[in-house]
Amino acid sequence: MFARRRLMTTIGLGALLAACGRESGDRPASPAEAARWAEGLALPPDPSFEALLPPAAGPDPYQPLGHALRALEAGQEGRALILLLGDSHAAGPILAERLRELFQARYGALGPGRLPPARAQRFWNPSGLFIAQNGEWEARNALRSTSPGPFGLTGYRLTGARAGDTLTLRTTDPRGFDRIGLTFATGPASGSFRLRAAGTPDTPHATATPAPDLRQMRYDVSPGTKEMALELVGDGPIDLLGWGIDRRGRGVLVEAFGINGATLSTLDNRDPSILARELALTPPALVILEYGTNEATDRDLDADAYAAALSRRIRTLRAALPRSGIMLMGAPDAGRPVRAAPPRRGQPARPATGCAAVTPLPSLATVKAAQRRAVADTRAGFFDWSAEVTQDPCRLPGLAAGAQPLMQRDLVHFTAEGYRLTAERLHAAILRGAGLAGAAPRPTGA
Do 274 and 241 form a contact (C-beta atoms < 8 A)? Predict the structure, then answer.
């Protein structure tokens, strides 16, 4: 939270990320560098993502993604990444899945991309994927600064050590996948694993490093592979920060990482060196920040401090990713249901409706105003979730009623239909910002 006495800063992280963003170059790799890259260490930026990005982002936050999408339409080879970071709205799979479906239908489908590690994110059930976790595993997330890390881009960490324990990922997509990505936090005591998938040798893969480090390991597997499994050898602990599957080729990836209860400040709980290296490996064309709902529950929220923190975060990302666009999703309307008063004797019960049936979150207006100030200050992109979907706190009870409600009864979270509608409106707003006309998707709800 951004209470007056607890403002968290990001200056150190910004400097580190910016430095990492300047490390890549065009010189050929030395033998030592090539050996480290083969082990998943100190990887350079993926050229398939860099190929579609402009030399510099410029003042238009939508220009990098627009540049990439136009290149794909023209037949150029490469990959464009849209990265969404946020709270429970982003933690649920539906918003990202619908956004991915819309972009991939037009520009090329590559699969889901990177995901939180196995079942580290509780109650996460993405469509089209079966995830199994067998054995003794310990899951942690970066919600609180006191949670033992390290954490990377996903904000989750899954630790296991017992021989034979497995993690399984299976897709129902008939196209399958042909690439696997695994991200590990490593150290001298780190153990080994076997990767079981079509086209991979049945040999142990070591993760140990002389000092704490990061391995971003990539494997090509047989085209059309539907299932992969990671099995522990038992010679030391494995710390899995993320995994993913995709297909080689040209197209778009939409990756989303959220934590229930997260605020903007929880980004500081990710290890800065790990985050920097993950962002540098696959530079996104567009980064979308989706925070504000949990800040709006803070009655002592300092508007000036929050607006300043948002501006710093956007500038931090811009320094780290000079060829990427940055966008902010404005907080949607949210509130608490008002319990109906008991009926008077002899009179029928009349449930409250409209404004009488909801109490807006205490700092909702403050959050919205601070977000607009930060956007104006940094010239970031902006999606007005309130204007596009909820429109007014007084409408929330009505959105939670009817045959196809868009809001859940808590008046904070959306239903599946509400998140799909949000994704459709967000998709249309991004294309408008990028100057790309296209047929609008069939609307999900009112």
Answer: yes
